Automatic annotation (TrEMBL):
<keyword id="KW-0472">Membrane</keyword>
<keyword id="KW-0153">Cholesterol metabolism</keyword>
<feature type="region of interest" description="Disordered">
    <location>
        <begin position="62"/>
        <end position="86"/>
    </location>
</feature>
<keyword id="KW-0753">Steroid metabolism</keyword>
<dbReference type="GO" id="GO:0016132">
    <property type="term" value="P:brassinosteroid biosynthetic process"/>
</dbReference>
<keyword id="KW-0560">Oxidoreductase</keyword>
<feature type="compositionally biased region" description="Basic and acidic residues">
    <location>
        <begin position="15"/>
        <end position="30"/>
    </location>
</feature>
<dbReference type="GO" id="GO:0047598">
    <property type="term" value="F:7-dehydrocholesterol reductase activity"/>
</dbReference>
<feature type="compositionally biased region" description="Polar residues">
    <location>
        <begin position="72"/>
        <end position="82"/>
    </location>
</feature>
<keyword id="KW-0521">NADP</keyword>
<keyword id="KW-0152">Cholesterol biosynthesis</keyword>
<feature type="transmembrane region" description="Helical">
    <location>
        <begin position="369"/>
        <end position="389"/>
    </location>
</feature>
<feature type="transmembrane region" description="Helical">
    <location>
        <begin position="178"/>
        <end position="197"/>
    </location>
</feature>
<feature type="transmembrane region" description="Helical">
    <location>
        <begin position="498"/>
        <end position="516"/>
    </location>
</feature>
<feature type="transmembrane region" description="Helical">
    <location>
        <begin position="335"/>
        <end position="357"/>
    </location>
</feature>
<keyword id="KW-1133">Transmembrane helix</keyword>
<feature type="region of interest" description="Disordered">
    <location>
        <begin position="1"/>
        <end position="44"/>
    </location>
</feature>
Length: 546
């Protein structure tokens, strides 16, 4: 059995005999596709090859031979004739790098090892390890004065890692009744608001199976209403002794409850995807561990509620905003006005405001288009965002710093600029696609690649790749302002400890890895069109460097 993982699908391939029977036909199909033969001839093979199969062939060293033969022939339908459209000319379907990778992975034992690593070992390690990570952050702030070094010596010196971790969990309290009420009340509130608040229906991107999910675009109203309710209740209940800082004081209970709920919820999602999927974008890889980790459905719905809209946006992102407000309240109760906390919280709130303003655009990002609803994305949004993303302001509650106006203003302005660049980049992509390239980018006609690709059912589609504006500087330039911004809201903690930089460090790893992941995904999806884009915009993330 050969498995091929591309994020949305895991193909359970046929027996070797069946495989070899179909190889020659598929190869012929690939050759025709890239040779620019007549539409009629091409149609004959249209249903035989899809993107994932093409990659599978390339990995087996077959597609490469077929495609190379046609290096000089123009790619079918590559341009619409506009002087600003870049013709995705001929060439190998995938870049040299991927061909090299393909050659390397031809060895069956190496392939087996890679599959075991990607689909079993890494998921097991991640599922076992990351739930501890958010507790480590909490423990370090609350019991080790924010110092990882103190935490390591306290927990692990002259003891095994497992004993240290067990000792750490021993100081974590089980969720108390008020915490359970707050969390379940908030979850219920979010669901009711998803249904009740007004918003127009927007279409998500077409999925690999050809479905078009529809979402209610009421995220921004939800965000404003929720923040107004938070501050209104904080102000009115204060005289009666109620304060939201209970969430800060009992954050161990919160993390315990979120961890438990999410791990169980992911089991439910796993089973739902297998036995009652909401759409055809579902299925099993045949590996139970990988299925739990990655998910069995792309966009599950429960009683009409979109699961990822709930976990990622309404719980994860909104929870982030509420938690930094809780930190601001707690800091004010302890120390009064602290400018470092103001900078840190203000930048995070502006960023999250931008997120909700643009929530419909988020539906066309990797989190939604590629990642299935499993442990990776759902646990990540339900636990990792509250536990890790909020760590700079969580730390600053007990480590107040007075920055002074010049430094505070500098960090604030730089951070706002970074948010603007990141937003503009996201918007450029959305605008160009929304207007079918008829808009202006930085005051000029955009440079476009009209890229064709096939859905899994063989249906052909066209998509626009923008090769100017921010998308002409590097293929994922918008990650640079994302990282700069995170640095701007972490720097107010200054340099006493590494902990407030945990999120930035994580973000750099996540986004650099994403540049590779997305390049691979797009190379598979768009073939020579993506290669054309890579030639025009050679850097992944940082112009001239990377
Ligand atoms: P992108 O918004 O970059 O989406 C990638 C997709 O965009 C590609 O798969 C492709 O999809 C399409 N695309 C790629 N190149 C082009 C192009 N030149 N022109 C048009 N479309 C293109 O990725 P993310 O989902 O990673 O990021 C979305 C936002 O979320 C960003 O602002 C990012 O900074 C932020 N983010 C924040 C994180 C955090 O934890 N703070 C983590 C990750 C992202 P298609 O198949 O449609 O062609």
């Amino acid at each position: 059995m050969i498995y091929h993982m591309d994020g949305n699908q895991v193909l359970n391939h046929k027996t070797q005999q069946e495989e070899s029977d179909t190889r020659s036909t598929r190869r012929a199909g690939l050759e025709l596709r890239s040779s620019g033969l007549s539409e009629k001839q091409d149609k004959k093979y249209e249903n035989m090859v899809d993107i994932a199969e093409a990659e599978q062939l390339i990995r087996q060293g077959l597609g490469r031979r077929g495609m190379r033969r046609n290096d000089s022939s123009p790619s079918r339908g590559a341009t619409n004739g506009s002087p600003h459209d870049i013709s995705a000319g001929a060439g190998d379907v995938l870049s040299e790098g991927i061909q090299g990778y393909g050659r390397l992975t031809q060895s069956p034992s190496l392939q087996r090892f890679k599959l075991f690593l990607n689909m079993t070992l890494s998921p097991i390690l991640l599922i076992a390890f990351v739930p501890n990570l958010v507790i480590v952050i909490w423990f370090t702030v609350m019991h080790c004065d924010g110092s990882y070094w103190t935490m390591v010596t306290k927990l692990f010196s002259q003891r095994s890692i497992l004993t240290g971790i067990a000792d750490m969990w021993r100081v974590v309290n089980m969720p108390s009744t008020p915490v359970l009420y707050i969390l379940s009340g908030y979850g219920l509130y979010a669901l009711v608001m998803m249904r009740l608040l007004p918003g127009k229906m927007v279409k998500g991107p077409v999925t690999p199976k050809g479905n078009v999910p529809v979402y209610k675009d009421n995220g921004f109203v939800y965000y404003l209403v929720t923040l107004a309710l938070f501050w209104g209740l904080t102000y009115t209940l204060r005289p009666y002794g109620y304060t939201p800082s209970i969430i800060y004081d009992r954050f161990d209970e919160v993390l315990f409850a979120l961890n438990t709920f999410s791990l169980v919820f992911c089991v439910f999602l796993y089973l739902k995807g297998l036995f009652a999927p909401s759409s055809t974008d579902s299925g099993s890889s045949g590996n139970i561990i990988f299925d739990y980790y990655w998910g069995t459905e792309l966009y599950p719905r429960i009683l009409g509620f979109d699961v990822k809209l709930f976990t990622n946006c309404r719980f994860g992102m909104m929870g982030w905003a509420l938690l930094v407000c809780v930190h601001a309240v707690k800091s004010y109760e302890l120390h009064g006005f602290v400018d470092s906390m103001v900078v840190c919280v203000a930048l995070q709130l502006i960023y999250i405001t931008k997120f909700f303003w643009w929530e419909a655009g988020y539906m066309s990002t990797i989190d939604i288009m590629v990642d299935r609803a499993g442990f990776y994305i759902c646990w990540g949004c339900l636990v990792y965002i509250p536990g890790l993303y909020t760590s700079p302001s969580f730390y600053m509650v007990s480590h107040p710093v007075i920055l002074g106006l010049p430094l505070a203003a500098f960090l604030l302005v730089t951070g706002v600029l970074a948010i603007w660049v990141n937003y503009e980049a996201d918007m450029q992509k959305q605008m160009v696609r929304g207007s079918n390239g008829t808009c202006l980018v930085w005051g000029r006609k955009p440079e476009l690649i009209r890229a064709r690709y096939c859905l899994e059912n063989g249906q052909e589609k066209e998509s626009l790749l923008l090769a100017s504006g921010w998308w002409g500087m590097a293929r994922h330039f918008h990650y640079v302002p994302e990282i700069t911004l995170a640095l701007c809201w972490s720097l107010p903690a200054l340099f006493q400890n590494i902990l407030p930089y945990s999120y930035v460090i994580f973000l750099v790893i996540l986004l650099v890895h994403r540049t590779f992941r997305d390049d691979e995904k797009c190379a598979r999806k768009y073939g020579s069109f993506w290669q054309q884009y890579c030639k025009k915009v050679p850097n992944k993330m940082v112009p001239y460097l990377f």
